[in-house]
Amino acid sequence: MKKTILLALSSIVLIACNNPKSTNKTVERENPILQEWDTPFGLPPFDKIQSEDYLPAYKIALAEHQADIDAIINNTEAPTFKNTIEGIEFAGKNLTKISSLLSCVEAANTDSILKATKKELAPITSAHYDNIMLNEDLFAKVKAVYDQKETLNLTPIESYLLEEKYKDFTKSGINLGAEDKEKLKEINGKLAELTLQYGNNLLDETNSFEYHTTDSTDLGNLPTSLKALAKEEATKRGHESGWSFTVQRPSINPFLQSSPNRKARKILYDAYAQRANNDNDKDNKKIIKEIVSLRIDKAKLLGFKNHASRVLQNNMAEKPENVLAFMDKMWPFALAKAKEEKAAMNKIFQADGNEGDIQGHDWRYYVEKVRKERYNFDEEETRPYFEVSAVTKGVFELANKLFGMTFVKRTDLPIWHPEQEVFEVNNRDGSHCGIMYLDFFARDSKRGGAWMNSIRKQSNVDGMIHPVVTTNYNYPAPTENSPSLLSYREAETLFHEFGHAIHGLLSNVKYRSLSGTAVPRDFVEFPSQVMENWMGEPEVLQLFAKHYKTGEVIPEALIKKLKDANSFNGGFGTVEYMAAAYLDMYWHTLEAPTEMGVNEFEAKKLTELGLIDVIQPRYRSTYFSHIFSGGYSAGYYSYQWSEVLDADCFNAFKETGNLFDPAVAKRYQEMMSKGGSEKGMKLYTDFRGQEPDIKWLLEKKGFIE
Ligand SMILES: [Zn+2]
């Protein structure tokens, strides 16, 4: 096997030498990504890696992977579980390593080189995997092992790996005729390019917009720390004075909540809602139609009636009908609640001297007003209690109480950006558990939102490979005068991403492809969302929610007000989210491309749903990157599906009268340790003793008493 790898390597070097730009680099400097990572915990040597290193390293790793696969195909021995199934699992060690690394860095700290790298690699990678997954000789070997599975005496996890590998092939179209296989390859290649283009358009549109003002009354009661940030933004964009706001969430949301200037609110609100929908070269409408149409073609080729049916076959939900039936159960409760909230806000809106009905760009402003008037609650009052490092300590303490984990800050480990923090994580018995990176602040090189991913996944074949995880956020950066102070929601996001990180860190599975967060889409948000439940409990808040100046613990009365006030806007939040989840299902249950334009289709479907026009879907089609450039197509419903699980799971703790009940925590840890090595519903029922009940979610949201 070694020989083939060397051959592959030398052919790549030749290719590099033909390229005049890279000749010097190839000669002068060895690529640090490909050298042994001689670092503590085998972490990537971020301090040595440059953006231009990824492309050549990745190409070499692809060739190595191909060589490993070729060796399996060309092996003259009879196919066995070891030489075929494990062979595929272990093939391309460098590719596994590099592709995880590249996805992490490209999402959190991109530049023009990394963007170009990703763009160049997207179609190559897709073709590479198609070549493997559509290779009939390889599939024949897998099938030979699969067909004798009853007589092989496999352990449960080996059987599960065999099932999964077999499915990987059949769902990629291995049973297609030669012509259809070519068609599928072509579709996959086009989709890879289009989805990337969609994401780039959105990033450019998001970064290019600014609202600049020199009128301080526009700022309303915007907190000082955010005013300072807006001032910095203005300076950065070349203004001599004033404040600049962008359509990035940490900038636009506080502005919409605080600014009394209706016109300004409308400008920002509309700009946000119109992203990549502007009839210019960053317009995503045409791309959406192409993606939807190609996804239908692909589903049909593979024997499904639509994209959603194809995607959902491996989920807990199994088919689109189940998803829609589940959402249809929730929707009337949520919509009724949102209408109640609108009526309450209309009164205040009109009492404020406005005519007509409250509009989308007014909603957040008047939510804050209603909260203040009805609950005497100002979200900004809580910010000083959620200083980012205090919240981080809070999640660490929670993990310690539940699972005995400890976190030691390290300043000697390589990082990809100076703002990144890194912690060594240990188990209850003091043994090493893994490494966790945290990257908190918004910047242009980072994509929006918050997410967790794995730099290295856990596995345990010839000894334990410990996980390395990263969580990423877009929090307001500290300024000269103030640390980074989070809103309640932003703090909750930290608990959320930390829940994903725990899922990765607690993993204890033999095979990498089944470890950690490698679970169905509608299970994966459960371990993250369940963590948010703890944060909402007064006894947990008291552990960490301390005033950043005085150290005073958040007053109980403020917690009570916050909870009452938060449940007030629950209808809006659920409707906003569900409208997007429905939109996802509407696009992906189409059985033929629609004649309608993107905006027309969206408007028609949402009107039929009964969405009130003061609420926009959380994502409209042109900036719904989860489903058109991320991996969440026909899967955005999953957050709510997982919410059913998390509400039910948290109730398991509450029923004992102890939020940290050791026996329940132990069963939870056991469930997390299994990663994706068993079916989601089985993992859950093993933990709970029964299937989850939807009533805990309806009750939690205040939709039923
Ligand atoms: Zn999540």
Strand order of the largest sheet: 3-4-5-9-6
Question: Sheet bearing the most strands, described?
Answer: 5 strands, mixed
The count of helical stretches stands at 30
CATH fold-type name of the largest domain: Neurolysin, domain 3
**What is the assembly state of the chains in this entry?**
single chain
The SS-based structural class is alpha+beta
**Share of residues in strands:** 5-15%
Describe the structure.
The chain is an alpha+beta fold and 705 residues long. The protein has 4 domains: 2-133 and 135-171, Neurolysin, domain 3; 209-273, no CATH class; 297-373 and 569-658 and 680-700, Neurolysin, domain 3 (Orthogonal Bundle); 383-568, Orthogonal Bundle (Neurolysin, domain 3), CATH 1.10.1370. 58% of the residues lie in helices and 6% in strands. The chain is built from 30 helices and 9 strands. The chain has helices spanning 2-18, 20-28, 54-74, 81-90, 93-108, 112-133, 136-147, 156-171, 178-208, 224-236, 249-258, 262-273, 285-301, 307-312, 320-351, 360-375, 379-382, 388-403, 488-505, 521-524, 526-535, 538-544, 556-568, 570-588, 598-609, 625-628, 638-654, 662-673, 680-688, 695-700; strands at residues 211-213, 243-245, 406-410, 421-426, 432-441, 451-456, 459-460, 464-465, 468-475. The protein has a 5-stranded mixed beta sheet with strand order 3-4-5-9-6. A two-stranded antiparallel ribbon has the order 1-2. Strands 7-8 form a two-stranded antiparallel ribbon. A hairpin with a 5-residue loop joins strand 4 (421-426) and strand 5 (432-441). The model is unreliable at 1-27 (pLDDT under 50). Bound molecules: zinc ion (ZN). The site of zinc ion has 4 residues, from helix 19.
